[in-house]
Write a structure and sequence with these properties.
By secondary structure, the chain is α/β, with parallel strands linked by helices. The protein contains 18 helices and ten strands. Strands 3-5-6-7-4-8 form a six-stranded mixed sheet. Strands 1-2 form a two-stranded antiparallel sheet. The longest helix is centred in the first third of the chain and has 28 residues.
Length: 451
């Protein structure tokens, strides 16, 4: 276990904030019990002075100039994660109803035995019975507030007809990471986040594309470089939709996934490949929920979202003949809207452009073909793929391989791997033509082709 100086500073700042938070709880109790000798407002409690040179919570407070009520709302949502016992006083039951006092709001979690604050809890602590303050404070949950725009703090869902403020106060995972350990951890692939981080140790020099494809990729690179200048400094946010949508299409193994990875690597952005097997569900509404988890988590993160084999999810809408068709079409419409609203780069990849719904293709800023490599490009691939530690058997001519076998880059790397393993198995580093030929035969067989 390593306790860094940053963690120490962050902990000290949170201790100061927790002391202030507990004082407000105490004062609210005294005000309600009329124990104070003169009129007192919880807002009279001085804000603690934090070490603003630190990152984490203090840095966030300073960067966004948070108000008294904003800081308190964040602490109320954070306390169950760091000092849950601070809220035990709210577990007091009304002797008449044997339930937690209505004033307190609050919920119990499925596994958490402590008190989970709600929007109602926040109103009780800051406004008491003052309706004017209560109404004024509800701006904290409006869509244009920092909390909503950054996805930091939200109210949990409530049943239809129930008061909105009965929703539990919920911090995003990113906010929880930032406020406690001072950095944001990358999400793990799971049912709640069906996307995997794409990384590569390869560089642009390892990618072999035809000149026209490379030229089209330059447009995406330019957008990634100047998007904020275009939208903010030039004021184009009033005229242009947020984000950038691109379609990569072409046979398997032609570099679509690697290109997505390299775009992220070049600008320092994470690239997440959405696992459609974990997204698509036969149950009505589940596909949309699964995708929402990805888009909600990705919002304002500068992530690149990559949908491989996208026609499984973004295929053509069908004529409505039954309820299943109607809901399938609703899924496509929902996806179209979420992609349009996303403010980052979304890349859809497919083997056949014609498989995608026309409503999607009309909205792509770039539609880029990744064709099978020609002889010259295949020659480059053969040259680049073999290890410098290996050597060719006399008589192996890479140019002849490039001319004879129409293979994509992914298939060529498979042949190289097979023939290299065979060389090692024979106790040397010589790549034999017979092993290359066998590797090629295997690739053709996988694709249902014959030599």
């Amino acid at each position: 276990m390593v306790i860094t100086e940053e963690i120490k500073r962050n902990a000290r700042n949170l201790e100061l904030e927790l002391k202030w938070f507990k004082h407000i709880l105490k004062m609210r109790s005294k005000i309600n019990d009329k124990e104070t000798e003169e009129p007192y407002d919880v807002f009279d409690t001085p804000l603690p002075v934090l070490d603003v040179g630190a990152t984490g919570y203090a840095g966030f407070v300073e960067a966004h100039k948070l108000t008294f009520q904003e800081r308190f709302a964040l602490m109320l949502a954070l306390v169950p994660h760091v000092k849950p016992e601070s809220l035990d006083g709210f577990l007091t039951k009304n002797q008449n109803t044997q339930q937690i006092f209505t004033d307190f709001g609050g919920k119990r979690g499925k596994n958490h035995t402590g008190f989970l604050p709600t929007g109602e809890t926040l109103m009780y602590l800051l406004a008491g019975g003052n309706l004017e303050k209560r109404f004024a404070l509800q701006y904290l949950f409006e869509g244009n507030h920092l909390f909503a725009k950054e996805g930091l703090l939200m109210l949990g869902n409530v049943e239809n007809g129930e008061p909105m403020l009965n929703g539990a106060l919920t911090l995003s995972n990113e906010a929880l990471d930032l406020f406690t350990i001072g950095t944001i951890r990358k999400p793990n692939f799971s049912a709640d986040f069906p996307a995997k981080l794409l990384t590569t140790e390869m560089g642009w020099e390892d990618l072999v594309l035809n000149p026209y494809t490379s030229a089209q990729l330059t447009e995406i690179e330019t957008w990634l470089k100047y998007r904020y200048t275009l939208m903010n400094d030039w004021g184009m946010h009033r005229k242009l939709k947020p984000g950038y949508k691109a379609l990569f299409y072409g046979p398997p193994g032609t570099g679509k996934t690697l290109t997505a990875s390299l775009l992220g690597k070049k600008i320092g952005s994470d690239v997440y490949r959405v696992d459609l097997s974990k997204v698509v569900s036969k149950y009505i509404g589940e596909t949309e929920k699964n995708l929402s988890r990805v888009f909600d988590r990705a919002e304002n993160k500068d992530w690149i979202l990559f949908f491989d084999e996208a026609d499984a999810l973004f295929g053509k809408r069908t004529n409505v003949s039954d309820a299943h068709d109607r809901y399938a079409n609703q899924e496509v419409s929902y996806l179209l809207q979420r992609i349009e609203d996303y403010n980052g780069l979304v890349i859809l990849a497919t083997n056949f452009k014609s498989n995608l719904d026309d409503a999607f293709t009309r909205r792509f800023q770039s539609i880029i073909q990744f064709p099978m490599p020609d002889v010259k490009e295949r020659m480059l691939l053969w040259e680049k793929c073999f290890s410098p530690a290996s050597k060719m058997e006399e008589g192996v001519k890479l140019e002849e391989l490039a001319r004879s076998y129409n293979l994509a880059g992914g298939s060529i790397i498979n042949v190289v791997q097979y023939s290299s393993l065979m060389a090692l198995d024979k106790g040397g580093n010589t790549i034999f033509l017979e092993d290359i030929s066998e590797g090629v035969k295997r690739e053709y067989h996988k694709q249902g082709r014959t030599l």
